[in-house]
Specification:
Helix content of chain B: 55-70%
Helix content of chain A: over 70%
Order of helices and strands of chain B: HH
Shape of chain A: globular
Number of strands of chain A: 0
Largest sheet of chain A: none
Order of helices and strands of chain A: HHHHHHH
Strand content of chain A: under 5%
Oligomer: heterodimer
Number of helices of chain A: 7
Radius of gyration of chain B: 23 Å
Strand content of chain B: under 5%
Radius of gyration of chain A: 19 Å
Number of strands of chain B: 0
Shape of chain B: elongated
Distance between the termini of chain A: 26 Å
């Protein structure tokens, strides 16, 4: 982690600079806002990565009952929510100036991602409702397994069946067809960079939680 | 009764009037470049807020520790 944070710092600096400077093809409606691909989409990728890692630690907790795994799962999920909030807010702003509205209930991905976040907020409400650490960890782990399992359905399967303004949905070409190759040059490093940043933030949150557990 | 289940009530929602205040005009200028700035700032402030919250929680732990 000592090394990782420095790598992330340099990597993200380069990604942000390159993301603003590379010439991009002229895409109607999106115009320069196509650069948001480097910011908005990696938010969701980072969220997926954190939730998925949280699932792994929840399962590991259920396997061996080590409270440390539960602490890791909680930290990962919390950072996942932070990135999800970033994704929602940036999406709303982007939508206003390309689709013409801050929020629309006709857009399944938008609404289902908000629903997904609510599912994970419930994870923390559940945690705060139980005082006994072992009981809390067990309940939270079981709930987390349920919550993460719904994510691919809510954010991938269902939006693909419905008409949507997002790329890859019914009536819209998929990401691979609309994305100019030069955008990918920054997009994939941005995804890696933001996931790295999420890991660094998770580490902070994990260390705080560990300290707090030791004190109480 | 207008059948709003099978046909659209109207082409445009009555409440929706295209606003052209300074903010909308500013964001629409320069080929939507400022939308990218806005998105960057949103991410920056959300992450900054998260860091602040961890910082304040750590401070609380430290004050309890001293007591």
């Amino acid at each position: 982690m000592r090394v990782l944070k420095h790598i992330v710092a340099v990597w993200m600096t380069l990604v942000i600079i390159a993301g603003f400077l590379i010439p991009i093809p002229d895409i109607p409606i999106l115009e320069q806002s196509a650069r948001n691909l480097f910011l908005h989409v990696p938010m969701w990728m980072a969220m997926y990565a954190m939730f998925l890692a949280g699932l792994v630690y929840s399962i590991r907790f259920l396997n061996d009952g080590k409270l440390d795994h539960d602490t890791k799962a909680a930290s990962l999920t919390q950072v996942g929510i932070v990135f999800g909030i970033c994704g929602l807010l940036t999406g709303a702003l982007w939508a206003r100036f390309t689709w013409g509205t801050w929020w629309t209930f006709a857009e399944p991905k938008m609404n289902l991602s908000a629903l997904t976040l609510l599912l994970f907020v419930s994870y923390f409400i559940l945690r705060s409702a139980v005082d006994d650490p072992r009981k809390r960890a067990k309940l939270a782990a079981v709930y987390n397994v349920f919550a993460v399992t719904t994510v691919p359905f809510l954010l991938y399967v269902i939006p693909r069946q419905l008409p949507s303004l997002h790329p890859g949905a019914d009536g819209n070409p998929a990401f691979s067809e609309v994305t100019a190759p030069e955008l990918r040059l920054i997009f994939y490093p941005a995804v890696i960079g933001f996931i790295g940043l999420a890991v660094v933030l998770t580490n902070l949150s994990y260390r705080y939680r560990t300290l707090k557990n030791q004190q109480s | 009764m207008t059948d709003t289940l099978t046909t659209a009530y109207a082409e445009k929602w009555d409440g929706a009037t295209e606003s052209t205040n300074w903010f909308i005009q500013f964001m629409n200028s320069n080929d939507l470049s400022f939308v990218v700035l806005g998105v960057s700032l949103i991410i920056w402030f959300v992450l900054l807020g998260y860091l602040y919250s961890i910082d304040s929680k750590l401070n609380r732990l430290e004050t309890i520790d001293k007591k």
